[in-house]
Amino acid sequence: MLTRRTLMTASLAGAALLGVGALPRFALAQTADQAAAFIDKTGKDLTAVVNGSAGTADKTAQLQQIVDRDVDVDAVARFCLGRYWRSASPAQQQQYLQLFRQVLVKNITSKLGDYQGVTFAVGRTSPRDGAVAVATVVTRPGTAAANVEWVVSSASGSPRIVDVVAEGTSLRLTQRSDYASYLAHNNNNLQALLDAMRQQLTQPS
Amino acid sequence: MGAVRTMILVGAVGLALAGVSGCATPPPADDPDAVADFNQTNDPMEPTNRVFYAVNNGIDAVLVKPLALGYKWAVPGVVRDRVHNVLGNLDSPVLLANDIMQTKPRRAGDTLMRFVINSTFGVAGMFDVADGWGYPYHNADFGETLALWGVPEGPYLFLPILGPGDPRDSSGHGVDIALDPLTWVGKGDVVTDLEYGRYGMTLLDVRVGLFDTLDKATSQALDPYATVRSLYRQHRAAEIEDIHSDTRATTPDWFPSQPGH
Q: How many domains, chain B?
């Protein structure tokens, strides 16, 4: 057992060294591979939680951890507010970021039951606006396989998810148009949006 | 059945024209950000569209959704899948015509092989055997064909019954009905009943398919109308991009390649 572990550590270290040496030449390819490996791990973590035997409360807590660790929530939130981010006061920005995170976690965890038995396979990667899009095929029992792309950005220092594109529809783009339309119909009043988001949190999911 | 469809279309267009007076007010010109948003949204008929969106939701709530829920409750998933496949197989001639007009030979070949294989080995389309044999399903309609021919989508349009669309895709829908050989088969009570059955089942089949996705998305939206508009446009753009970027060679994989390869 000991030898096996030593061997593994040694080969890992070797691979890391090789990787560092090859960095300049294969920097792009490596970012793509890194993104694919990252999505593979995040996907495995997610499916493990969803298909696990823990209670709903435990699962919710575990999902929340994964979201905080692997999703660049603040970047997504800023994107979704679009031009209204700039005109918001620092206090409003803080409130908004907090609410956005809570709504996001609530929306994800409310789908827990639906995703029972879900499996996924990582496919090709492609560059996308300074980030990397990782294609996956998500399969759920009783439904057709869905093409889901995960956009991974390393802008925050480590790879993190900034968008999910399901069958050609971007989650953050859809959310942005939802907020933009809501604000346009409420005199561009950011406070109205914050109140509506607070309202969303109190609704049963 | 064609007559019923035509009536719906004429009615929809009539209502739309009647509602033209309800145009969205453009934002003041001294607010460039708002003007950019307005132009990008490209929904000048928004007030009218919202009325039809509400009407459609009303029809859905009292009629279509309960029927679809009943269908889902009463019919096991295995049987619903068979129905879904049969309905899809019946669309093959329209798909093939559009594949050809889109000048995509590989897609046309896929559709043709799917129709032949699934109609025979797949027992009248009940089983999607062709998918496992390397001929996966794809969508093709005349709205997409027009898009590939360079016709722009135009402003957003929400029509009763037909739902989200735009001048290009909604008129393309009419062409697809005309392209369907089953629209023109012989007349008689049995044929008419079968056609009603087909359209009714298609409605239920599509609605059941939307329970998980669209219903979830709109229930979590602050402005469901805007969310549907965004989802529809993105989905169409992705479908059209898929066709556009499908540049597979016409020679199939098993065809002997040139000497030296």
A: 1
